[in-house]
Amino acid sequence: MTGRIHIDLFTTLDGVAQAPGGPDEDPEGGFAFGGWQAPLIDAAVGTQVIEGIRDMDALLLGRRTYDIFASYWPHQLDGPDNEIARVFDAIPKYVASRSALKLGWRDSHLLGPDLGAELAALRERHRSIHLIGSVEFARSLVAEGLFDQLNLWVYPVVVGAGKRLFPDAGPPTTLRLLEPPAPSEKGAVLLRYGPAGGAPATGDMTTAE
Protein backbone atom coordinates (compact mmCIF):
# COMPACT_ATOMS: atom_id res chain seq x y z
CA MET A 1 0.00 0.00 0.00
CA THR A 2 1.19 3.50 -0.82
CA GLY A 3 -0.94 5.99 1.06
CA ARG A 4 -1.59 9.59 0.07
CA ILE A 5 -0.73 12.62 2.16
CA HIS A 6 -3.27 15.47 2.10
CA ILE A 7 -2.76 18.99 3.43
CA ASP A 8 -6.07 20.61 4.53
CA LEU A 9 -5.94 24.37 5.12
CA PHE A 10 -8.36 27.27 5.41
CA THR A 11 -6.89 30.54 4.12
CA THR A 12 -7.91 34.12 3.50
CA LEU A 13 -7.77 35.60 0.01
CA ASP A 14 -4.36 37.08 0.86
CA GLY A 15 -3.08 33.66 1.94
CA VAL A 16 -3.23 33.86 5.73
CA ALA A 17 -3.91 30.48 7.36
CA GLN A 18 -3.41 31.56 10.97
CA ALA A 19 -6.12 30.98 13.59
CA PRO A 20 -9.24 30.54 11.43
CA GLY A 21 -11.20 28.92 14.26
CA GLY A 22 -11.18 31.33 17.19
CA PRO A 23 -9.64 34.40 18.87
CA ASP A 24 -7.35 32.38 21.17
CA GLU A 25 -6.31 29.73 18.66
CA ASP A 26 -2.99 31.30 17.70
CA PRO A 27 -2.38 34.95 18.72
CA GLU A 28 1.36 34.69 17.93
CA GLY A 29 2.77 37.88 16.41
CA GLY A 30 -0.14 39.90 17.77
CA PHE A 31 -2.54 38.38 15.22
CA ALA A 32 -5.78 40.34 15.63
CA PHE A 33 -8.20 38.34 13.47
CA GLY A 34 -8.37 34.94 15.16
CA GLY A 35 -11.70 33.36 14.20
CA TRP A 36 -11.90 35.04 10.78
CA GLN A 37 -13.49 31.91 9.29
CA ALA A 38 -16.39 31.67 11.76
CA PRO A 39 -18.73 34.25 10.12
CA LEU A 40 -18.24 32.55 6.73
CA ILE A 41 -19.05 28.94 7.66
CA ASP A 42 -21.73 27.38 5.45
CA ALA A 43 -23.23 23.99 4.62
CA ALA A 44 -21.22 23.43 1.44
CA VAL A 45 -17.87 23.74 3.20
CA GLY A 46 -19.21 21.63 6.06
CA THR A 47 -20.06 18.84 3.62
CA GLN A 48 -16.61 19.03 2.00
CA VAL A 49 -14.90 18.88 5.38
CA ILE A 50 -16.96 15.89 6.54
CA GLU A 51 -16.15 14.03 3.31
CA GLY A 52 -12.45 14.52 4.02
CA ILE A 53 -12.82 13.44 7.65
CA ARG A 54 -14.61 10.24 6.62
CA ASP A 55 -11.87 9.46 4.11
CA MET A 56 -8.88 9.71 6.46
CA ASP A 57 -7.34 6.88 8.41
CA ALA A 58 -4.49 8.86 10.02
CA LEU A 59 -4.01 12.42 11.22
CA LEU A 60 -0.87 14.56 11.00
CA LEU A 61 -0.51 17.55 13.31
CA GLY A 62 2.04 20.15 14.33
CA ARG A 63 2.67 20.74 18.03
CA ARG A 64 0.39 23.77 18.44
CA THR A 65 -2.51 22.25 16.52
CA TYR A 66 -2.14 18.98 18.43
CA ASP A 67 -2.47 20.85 21.73
CA ILE A 68 -5.61 22.65 20.47
CA PHE A 69 -7.19 19.46 19.13
CA ALA A 70 -6.27 17.35 22.17
CA SER A 71 -7.83 19.88 24.54
CA TYR A 72 -11.11 19.98 22.57
CA TRP A 73 -12.02 16.92 20.50
CA PRO A 74 -11.76 14.18 23.16
CA HIS A 75 -14.46 16.07 25.09
CA GLN A 76 -16.87 16.21 22.13
CA LEU A 77 -17.52 12.49 21.67
CA ASP A 78 -21.15 12.91 22.73
CA GLY A 79 -21.57 16.48 21.49
CA PRO A 80 -23.00 18.02 18.30
CA ASP A 81 -19.71 17.47 16.41
CA ASN A 82 -19.46 13.87 17.54
CA GLU A 83 -18.80 12.37 14.09
CA ILE A 84 -15.60 14.38 13.70
CA ALA A 85 -14.65 13.74 17.32
CA ARG A 86 -15.14 10.00 17.00
CA VAL A 87 -13.06 9.76 13.83
CA PHE A 88 -10.24 11.79 15.37
CA ASP A 89 -10.36 9.69 18.53
CA ALA A 90 -10.32 6.39 16.65
CA ILE A 91 -7.48 6.95 14.18
CA PRO A 92 -3.74 7.25 14.88
CA LYS A 93 -2.42 10.78 15.36
CA TYR A 94 1.19 11.64 14.41
CA VAL A 95 2.76 14.80 15.80
CA ALA A 96 5.78 16.77 14.58
CA SER A 97 7.69 18.56 17.32
CA ARG A 98 11.29 19.60 17.89
CA SER A 99 10.97 18.80 21.60
CA ALA A 100 9.83 15.80 23.61
CA LEU A 101 6.12 15.75 24.35
CA LYS A 102 3.76 13.92 26.64
CA LEU A 103 1.02 12.88 24.25
CA GLY A 104 -2.07 12.13 26.31
CA TRP A 105 -4.61 11.77 23.50
CA ARG A 106 -5.34 8.15 22.63
CA ASP A 107 -3.17 6.59 19.88
CA SER A 108 -0.89 9.64 19.53
CA HIS A 109 2.71 9.24 18.36
CA LEU A 110 5.67 11.60 18.09
CA LEU A 111 7.40 11.67 14.70
CA GLY A 112 11.18 11.30 14.57
CA PRO A 113 13.57 13.93 13.14
CA ASP A 114 13.85 12.33 9.67
CA LEU A 115 10.55 13.60 8.28
CA GLY A 116 10.96 12.00 4.86
CA ALA A 117 11.55 8.55 6.34
CA GLU A 118 8.72 8.93 8.84
CA LEU A 119 6.21 9.89 6.15
CA ALA A 120 7.37 7.08 3.88
CA ALA A 121 6.65 4.65 6.73
CA LEU A 122 3.22 6.19 7.28
CA ARG A 123 2.38 5.72 3.59
CA GLU A 124 3.01 2.00 4.05
CA ARG A 125 0.65 1.81 7.03
CA HIS A 126 -2.18 4.12 6.00
CA ARG A 127 -4.33 4.84 2.95
CA SER A 128 -5.29 8.48 3.50
CA ILE A 129 -3.21 10.68 5.82
CA HIS A 130 -4.43 14.25 6.44
CA LEU A 131 -2.49 17.18 7.85
CA ILE A 132 -5.05 19.64 9.22
CA GLY A 133 -4.09 23.23 10.00
CA SER A 134 -0.52 23.22 11.31
CA VAL A 135 0.59 25.85 8.78
CA GLU A 136 4.30 25.73 9.67
CA PHE A 137 4.35 21.92 9.39
CA ALA A 138 2.44 22.18 6.10
CA ARG A 139 5.05 24.65 4.87
CA SER A 140 7.76 22.04 5.43
CA LEU A 141 5.84 19.38 3.50
CA VAL A 142 5.33 21.70 0.53
CA ALA A 143 8.95 22.87 0.56
CA GLU A 144 10.22 19.26 0.55
CA GLY A 145 7.59 17.90 -1.85
CA LEU A 146 6.27 15.49 0.77
CA PHE A 147 2.57 15.68 -0.07
CA ASP A 148 0.15 14.37 -2.69
CA GLN A 149 -2.76 16.76 -2.48
CA LEU A 150 -3.27 20.28 -1.16
CA ASN A 151 -6.89 21.01 -0.22
CA LEU A 152 -7.06 24.78 0.10
CA TRP A 153 -10.29 26.51 1.15
CA VAL A 154 -9.90 30.16 0.13
CA TYR A 155 -12.27 32.67 1.75
CA PRO A 156 -13.29 36.14 0.49
CA VAL A 157 -11.64 38.06 3.31
CA VAL A 158 -8.31 39.91 3.56
CA VAL A 159 -6.60 40.28 6.94
CA GLY A 160 -3.05 41.48 6.18
CA ALA A 161 -0.19 40.13 8.27
CA GLY A 162 -0.30 36.54 9.50
CA LYS A 163 1.14 33.06 8.96
CA ARG A 164 1.03 31.91 5.33
CA LEU A 165 1.59 28.58 3.65
CA PHE A 166 3.62 30.32 0.96
CA PRO A 167 5.93 32.87 2.64
CA ASP A 168 7.75 35.63 0.78
CA ALA A 169 10.99 33.65 0.97
CA GLY A 170 9.53 30.76 -1.05
CA PRO A 171 10.68 28.23 -2.08
CA PRO A 172 9.31 28.60 -5.63
CA THR A 173 7.17 25.65 -6.66
CA THR A 174 4.51 24.66 -9.18
CA LEU A 175 1.15 22.99 -8.64
CA ARG A 176 -1.55 21.51 -10.87
CA LEU A 177 -5.27 21.87 -10.34
CA LEU A 178 -6.84 18.44 -9.82
CA GLU A 179 -10.49 19.34 -10.39
CA PRO A 180 -12.62 22.43 -11.20
CA PRO A 181 -13.44 24.45 -8.08
CA ALA A 182 -16.97 25.45 -7.08
CA PRO A 183 -17.79 28.34 -4.69
CA SER A 184 -19.81 27.81 -1.53
CA GLU A 185 -22.84 29.90 -0.53
CA LYS A 186 -20.68 32.43 1.31
CA GLY A 187 -17.95 32.59 -1.32
CA ALA A 188 -15.35 30.10 -0.11
CA VAL A 189 -13.65 28.15 -2.91
CA LEU A 190 -12.06 24.72 -2.43
CA LEU A 191 -8.96 24.41 -4.60
CA ARG A 192 -7.49 20.92 -4.85
CA TYR A 193 -3.88 20.92 -6.07
CA GLY A 194 -1.23 18.30 -6.64
CA PRO A 195 2.52 18.93 -6.96
CA ALA A 196 3.65 19.58 -10.53
CA GLY A 197 7.38 19.45 -9.81
CA GLY A 198 10.11 22.01 -10.27
CA ALA A 199 10.28 25.77 -10.12
CA PRO A 200 7.91 28.00 -12.12
CA ALA A 201 8.77 28.38 -15.80
CA THR A 202 9.15 31.85 -17.30
CA GLY A 203 8.62 33.30 -20.76
CA ASP A 204 8.32 36.53 -22.68
CA MET A 205 4.80 37.65 -23.64
CA THR A 206 6.17 40.36 -25.94
CA THR A 207 7.47 37.81 -28.46
CA ALA A 208 5.37 36.46 -31.34
CA GLU A 209 5.45 32.94 -29.91
UniProtKB/TrEMBL annotation:
InterPro entries: DHFR-like_dom_sf (IPR024072), RibDG_C (IPR002734). One of its GO terms (biological process) is riboflavin biosynthetic process. It comes from the Bacteria. Residues 6-178 form the Bacterial bifunctional deaminase-reductase C-terminal domain. GO terms for molecular function: 5-amino-6-(5-phosphoribosylamino)uracil reductase activity. This is Dihydrofolate reductase. It comes from Glaciihabitans tibetensis.
